[in-house]
Design a protein that fits this description.
651 residues, alpha/beta, six-stranded parallel sheet, globular
Length: 651
């Protein structure tokens, strides 16, 4: 009976998926490209080994990076008749084991008490107190953006398994740019850790290290866990971080019954601490490991797959064979040049409406973008055209604290002087919320995200038709309408507008990659080779979300009339031109000049913190000077690394 069931598990798998399922027990690395059926392969391997008696399901621990992915694994295994597998996130598995073996930890109480179990209120109170102590200011006066940034840095440090001292040594080298000095963050981390110890509590990020330490130090606990779990499976292994790997090693205890599935081309979480080298070097840790490449993309058309292959051609992450599209032909990807961002929004609306007229369901359409604030004008343009929209993660822009604060101020003033010019009220409200158009915060932390959100609101209002922004009454009513639309449940028939990061793991029939200009893709904050490589992988993720239709849009002009350049990654989306004989036309190369010495001298004329102006990018502030290169934060025009010339002038 089990033989027949096992054969049914193999039915419908392609040759490569079958090879992965049948690979002998032991270390197996499945390099699964986008759309190649990685989850299907992983679940079918677990089911096949259980049904053939090789590895009983009850001894398998399947690990994922999200609760949703763990639920999907359990559902698929259940449909295959294998319901005994424990499929959990790393954190959920660690918490379960800590609860069971809590007395062995020597910590007080009957089980772990998590600071962030109440939705974060207690957790943020601890962080605010730690920051207040380091900054020598009352905790109540600590900026909420600094608290959020500290939480982000704590998460990154925990993922890298770093102490506060190690964080201080490594954060700058890793390109961390919190909204505070790195020594300040490290000092707050030490205060926070001491406060947790004194109270006998943990936070969510402590779970992995605490569980790993318990297994490393208590032989009886380790033996009990290892008797329970003899085999392990890890999904999306390229997103695994050092703290998760440490716990996985503790669970394995020197054994090698491990299958990992991943795709280095989709490694886009280094900013959270993920280490794609764990996937790349799997065969170094396990020299006898079997590697199976899944390259048959069952999701996308040949044209979409070819574009994805061109994007990653020659990259170390794409060292294996290229993807092969199995869905057949479809329309070629299209790159649309737009005059400015208003024109780009209009082109996005026209593209979506064209797909809807062609009977592509609304829920099968997505507009993907790089930064959170970019969703605001895109969503507004779609809704103004009558297209229902939903945010990919369910977040609502108008619920942000600073945006609600501005709307409240406008609404209050509109009730008192409805016919007044709204501009002074709006500008004052934006300023009170922390917005200075000429002084954007440095870095990528919560303060900059708040500034970007407020800037997006100002840009939204600036782009409104005159009849909607002539009076306070009209503007308040329009903003309240947009906020109400943000709250209205769109139902299944809605177009998704979301960041590329949040789109990972999802797919749609038709996708727009919006705001594909240099400075957005790649991000202005990506300056190192590693950061730029991750930006390319992010575009790869966006490209491979599309099953059939793919359009990328970019604006040749920014608000205020400043020019922009298209993303360098867009060349890969368009098929390369060919000569009449079919050979590709080589790209032209540009030879560098011989002005290195003069440029270095020009760079020396600028210092960090200096205010400057540029005839293309406007006002800015110097954030870094390295030889002949000067990095300037231009606010709405982003962060730019320039070679000084007559256009960059110190103020």
């Amino acid at each position: 009976m089990h033989d027949a069931a096992a054969e049914r598990v193999l039915a419908g798998l392609d040759e490569q998926q079958t090879a992965a399922v049948l690979a002998r027990p032991g270390p197996v690395r499945v390099m699964a490209g986008a759309g190649t059926g990685k989850t299907r392969t992983l679940t079918h391997r677990i089911a096949y080994q259980h049904l053939t008696g090789t590895v009983p399901a009850g001894t398998v621990l399947a690990l994922t990076h999200s609760t949703k992915a763990a639920g999907e694994l359990r559902d698929r295994l259940g449909r295959l008749g294998v319901g005994a597998v424990q499929a959990r996130t790393f954190h959920a598995a660690a918490l379960r084991q800590l609860r069971y073996f809590w007395r062995a930890t020597g910590l007080p109480g009957d089980g772990p008490v998590l600071l962030d179990a109440d939705g974060g209120a207690t957790y943020y109170r601890y962080l605010r107190s730690a920051l207040g102590a380091v900054l020598r200011t009352p905790a109540r006066d600590v900026d909420a953006a600094l608290v959020t940034d500290l939480a982000t840095e704590l998460t990154w440090a925990a993922a890298r398994d770093l102490t506060p001292e190690e964080y201080e040594a490594q954060a700058a080298a890793a390109g961390r740019r919190p909204g505070m000095a790195i020594p300040t963050a490290a000092g707050a981390m030490r205060r926070y850790a001491a406060a947790k110890r004194d109270a006998g509590v943990l936070d969510f990020a402590d779970l992995l290290a605490c569980c790993a330490r318990l297994l490393e130090e208590d032989a009886d606990v380790a033996a009990a866990v290892r008797r329970q779990y003899t085999a392990f499976a890890v999904d999306e292994y390229q997103d695994t971080d050092p703290a998760q790997q440490r716990l996985l090693d503790a669970w394995l205890g020197g054994r090698d019954q491990l299958v990992v599935v991943g795709d280095a081309r989709q490694a886009v979480y280094a900013f959270k601490g993920a280490d794609t080298a764990l996937l790349r070097d799997f065969t170094v840790r396990f020299p006898h490991a079997v590697t199976v490449d899944l390259v048959r993309d069952h999701r996308s058309t040949t044209q979409v797959v070819d574009a994805a292959n061109r994007l990653m051609a020659g990259r170390p992450e794409a060292a294996g064979p290229p993807l092969v599209g199995m869905r057949g032909d479809g329309p070629a990807p299209v790159v649309l040049r737009c005059d400015d961002e208003d024109d780009e929004d209009a082109q996005i609306v026209a593209t979506v409406q064209r797909w809807l007229r062609a009977r592509v369901p609304a829920h099968e359409i997505a507009v993907l973008h790089r930064f959170n604030a970019q969703a605001v004008p895109i969503t507004a343009a779609l809704r103004d055209a009558g297209v229902p929209v939903t945010a990919g993660d369910g977040t609502r822009y108008f619920e942000r604290r600073e945006i609600a604060q501005v709307l409240t101020a406008v609404r209050r003033q509109a009730s008192e002087a409805p016919d007044d010019d709204p501009a002074p009220t709006l500008h004052a409200a934006l300023a009170r919320a922390g917005y200075d158009p000429d002084d954007p915060p440095d870095g990528t932390g919560a303060a900059r995200e708040r500034w970007d959100a407020l800037h997006a609101l100002g840009a939204l209002v600036a782009g409104l038709p005159a009849h909607l922004s002539r009076t306070l009454r009209a503007l308040s009513a329009d903003l309240d309408r947009r906020a109400a639309e943000d709250h209205a449940p769109p139902g299944r028939g809605a177009v998704t507008v979301t960041t590329i990061h949040r789109a990972k793991g999802l797919e749609w029939e038709a996708c727009v990659i919006a705001r594909a200009a240099d400075g957005s893709l790649p991000s202005v904050y990506a300056t190192t080779p590693a950061e730029l490589a991750e930006e390319r992988r992010l575009v790869y993720v966006a490209t491979t979300r599309a099953r059939r239709h793919l359009v990328a849009t970019w604006s040749a002009g920014r608000r205020g009339g400043r020019p922009a350049r298209r993303s360098p990654y867009l060349d890969a989306l368009e098929a390369a031109p060919t000569r009449p004989d079919g050979t590709p036309v080589a790209a032209r190369s540009v030879s560098p000049g011989r002005a290195g010495t003069a440029r270095a001298a020009a760079g020396a004329a600028f210092t960090a913190g200096q205010r400057v102006t540029h005839d293309r990018h406007g006002l800015g502030r110097v954030v870094d000077v390295r030889g002949a290169r000067v990095t300037v934060d231009f606010g709405a025009d982003g962060r730019r690394t320039l070679t000084p010339d007559g256009r960059l002038v110190a103020l």
